């Protein structure tokens, strides 16, 4: 694993942290520990952890992620029971918003304030900061291990408990080091995992996506992550054995109102017979006969429709529960390590993990400081063609290119992929416009911002950086969607059969979310989330320059108008999220309706249209004999009110029955009322 390679951006971080370390060494210090931050196995940043003799800790944490990434300094003073008495955090967050967060205990009063919240309460609990460094999680683990019951209240609300999972000894430049894996419940929708060494100091924390690990032990990351996977898989396998109902003798759904998504029409008084994983028959309830031993599911007249299809995910094992609870029975994964992905897809398909069907896409980028989180980096036509062949050999149907791919490589990628029956899409590489990418053979464009960037080539800077967001936030409102240049571009998309995956929920978050206010994409479900998860929805979106709040809001409205413009012109749109599993998909569909697309059309896009683009229309997307029994039972009519998709009651995948309420409860989320 290339853990010792340091790109130029990371060298700047090293110099900054070196200055920081020199400073703290002039103070009373017990120990300094250095950590690498790995993204897709590459060093992207560092954490410096200083344990002062006086019962205080200082963390400097920073990493670079395609022009984004936090840079914070955190000072923590602890008291009895390893509980924080003072916390002070300064710097910038992932999107470069200013961070100023403080917590203090004075007598019988604990107080906290940040750019997103403020409050007070009784002391005696642990305050998990919103913007803290990974080292803070080790302090929480220490406090929990000190507590008699292994449980502590959290501030502002909630509680946490800790469980010891496994011990390992890892090899590295510092010699063998023993570490213990702990799982902390209460911070998120799944347990937070952290490794502590023999002195209960942080050894590692994170996932295959981003991992903070003790310097000198970077090569131990695969072994460490495998141990985490063993724990997570065992936990999820227990749920997969306990929650679903597997009718062994067939299933008949009675008293159903079947939604014909092609016509947007309801058919009341229907029945559906499922044998094994497939639909065997569909017909009037009064006449459809079923085997005597079949399990009967009377849905009381509720709507039965095909499972939903999310065409833009980066799915993890834990996401399966949320997708399924939301009625999303198929997803397209647009950037996963191929080895990890194949293991996950197999488990979902076998039913040893609860999750949707997954359509794979081969992800590649070019090397450099803005490379995406992938091990597949190509710099020559031969490398690009070889990567395409590898993905084709794995059975992938599509290639996703990313922003650092050299434009001159795109024709080679397209030629090799098309020769093998594969589609090509993704980000528009830096140095190209969307129009040029389409001319070079792109079959699909991800993210609506690239549609706008097409008209400002050469005037906004490097689109591998956050400028691809900020420029659209400040300029999209001024683009005339009825202009001749926009009309020509839309006509080109239609003529070439280009698919657009706009992920508008992402831009609602980036352009409209404000610090201290619940993210509008999740406002309708925030009250159902665990307290510490709900706090994360206050973080805000892009920094808003003074006087440009209204401009950002107007730009988002024009993003929605662009989606409607494409739909009216007959350009194929597929709904995807690139955000929180399940809930973001519901919001994506609601935003299409808000843009002016009729509800029935939105549901068609979310089912059979997406199935066609995924080349699965013979298996999913409609309710018909011979198709896979991937169905959802909805309390309402989404073809009239898209928001009714939030009221999923039952989810059936391949004939296996899941109650949505039970799936939500397994993640700590309150079910739909």
Characterise the protein shown here.
29% of the residues lie in helices and 28% in strands. The chain contains 17 helices and 31 strands. Strands 8-7-6-5-4-3-2-1-14-13-12-11-10-9 form a 14-stranded antiparallel β-sheet, with helices on both faces. Helix 10 crosses helix 14, helix 12 packs antiparallel against helix 14 and helix 14 (549-569) crosses helix 15 (583-595). The longest helix is centred in the middle third of the chain and has 22 residues, at 221-242. The two termini are 48 Å apart. The chain has a domain at 8-241. It is of the alpha+beta class and 673 residues long. Residues 1-29 have low confidence and may be disordered.
Quick tags:
17 helices, alpha+beta, 14-stranded antiparallel sheet, globular, 673 residues, disordered N terminus
Write the layout of secondary structure elements.
Elements: H1 8-24, E1 29-39, E2 42-52, E3 56-63, E4 71-78, E5 84-92, E6 98-106, E7 109-113, E8 118-121, H2 135-146, E9 151-153, E10 159-170, E11 177-185, E12 192-197, E13 202-206, E14 210-214, H3 221-242, E15 251-260, E16 265-275, E17 278-284, E18 295-298, E19 303-306, E20 308-313, H4 319-325, E21 328-333, H5 338-350, E22 357-360, E23 362-364, H6 381-393, E24 398-401, H7 410-419, E25 423-426, H8 434-439, E26 444-446, H9 449-453, H10 467-475, H11 484-496, E27 499-501, H12 504-512, H13 531-536, H14 549-569, E28 572-573, H15 583-595, H16 599-613, E29 631-634, E30 648-653, E31 656-659, H17 660-666
């Amino acid at each position: 694993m290339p853990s010792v390679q340091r790109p130029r951006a990371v060298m700047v971080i090293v110099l900054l942290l070196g200055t920081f370390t020199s400073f703290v060494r002039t103070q009373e210090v017990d120990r300094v520990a250095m950590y690498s931050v790995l993204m897709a196995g590459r060093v992207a940043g560092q954490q410096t952890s200083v344990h002062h003799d006086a019962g205080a800790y200082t963390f400097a944490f920073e990493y670079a992620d395609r022009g984004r990434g936090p840079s914070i300094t955190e000072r923590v003073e602890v008291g009895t029971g390893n509980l924080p008495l003072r916390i002070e955090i300064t710097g910038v967050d992932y999107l470069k918003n200013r961070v100023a967060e403080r917590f203090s205990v004075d007598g019988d009063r604990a107080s906290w304030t940040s750019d997103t919240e403020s409050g007070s309460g009784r002391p005696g609990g642990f305050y998990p900061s919103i913007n803290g460094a990974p080292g803070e999680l080790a302090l929480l683990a220490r406090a929990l291990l000190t507590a008699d019951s292994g449980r502590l209240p959290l501030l502002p609300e909630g509680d946490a408990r800790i469980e010891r999972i496994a011990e390992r000894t890892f090899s590295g430049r510092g010699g063998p080091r023993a570490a213990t894996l702990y799982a902390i419940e209460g911070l998120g929708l799944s347990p937070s995992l952290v490794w502590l060494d023999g002195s209960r100091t942080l050894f590692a924390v994170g996932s295959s996506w981003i991992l903070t690990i003790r310097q000198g032990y970077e090569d131990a990351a695969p072994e460490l992550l495998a141990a985490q996977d063993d724990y997570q898989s065992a936990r999820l396998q227990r749920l997969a054995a306990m929650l679903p109902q597997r009718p062994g003798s067939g299933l008949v759904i009675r008293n159903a109102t079947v939604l014909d998504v092609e016509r947007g029409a309801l058919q009341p008084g229907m029945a559906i017979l499922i044998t094994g994983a497939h639909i065997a028959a569909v017909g009037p309830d009064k006449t459809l006969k079923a085997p005597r031993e079949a399990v009967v599911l009377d849905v009381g007249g509720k709507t039965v429709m095909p499972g939903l299809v999310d065409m833009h995910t980066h799915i993890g094992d834990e996401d399966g529960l949320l997708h399924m609870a939301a009625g999303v029975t198929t997803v397209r994964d647009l950037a996963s390590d191929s080895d990890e992905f194949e293991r996950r897809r197999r488990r979902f398909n076998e039913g040893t993990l609860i999750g949707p069907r997954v359509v794979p896409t081969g992800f590649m980028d070019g090397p450099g400081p803005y490379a995406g989180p992938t091990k597949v980096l190509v710099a020559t036509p031969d490398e690009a063609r070889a990567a395409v062949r590898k993905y084709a050999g794995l059975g992938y149907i599509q290639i996703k290119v990313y922003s650092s791919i050299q434009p001159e490589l795109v024709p080679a990628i397209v030629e090799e992929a098309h020769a093998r029956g594969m589609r090509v899409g993704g980000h528009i590489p830096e140095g190209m416009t969307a129009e040029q990418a389409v001319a070079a053979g792109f079959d699909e464009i991800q993210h609506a911002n690239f549609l706008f960037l097409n008209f400002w080539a050469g005037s906004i800077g490097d689109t591998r950086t956050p400028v691809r967001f900020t420029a659209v936030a400040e300029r999209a409102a001024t683009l005339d969607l009825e202009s001749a240049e926009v009309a020509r571009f839309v006509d080109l998309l239609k003529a070439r059969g280009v698919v657009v995956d706009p992920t508008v929920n992402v831009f609602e978050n980036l352009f409209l979310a404000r610090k201290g206010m619940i993210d509008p994409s999740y406002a309708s479900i925030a009250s159902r989330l665990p307290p510490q998860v709900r706090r994360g929805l206050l973080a805000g979106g892009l920094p808003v320059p003074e006087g440009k709040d209204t401009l950002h809001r107007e730009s988002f409205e024009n993003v929605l108008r662009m989606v409607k413009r494409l739909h009216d012109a007959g350009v194929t749109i597929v709904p995807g999220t690139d955000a929180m599993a399940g809930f973001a998909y519901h919001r994506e569909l609601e935003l299409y309706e808000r843009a002016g697309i009729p509800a029935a059309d939105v549901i068609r896009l979310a089912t059979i249209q997406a199935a066609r683009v995924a080349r699965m229309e013979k298996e999913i997307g409609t309710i018909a004999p011979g198709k896979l029994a991937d169905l959802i039972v909805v309390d309402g009519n989404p073809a009239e009110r898209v928001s009714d998709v939030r009221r999923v009651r039952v989810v059936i995948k391949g004939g296996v029955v899941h109650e949505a309420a039970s799936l939500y409860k397994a993640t700590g989320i309150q079910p739909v009322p």
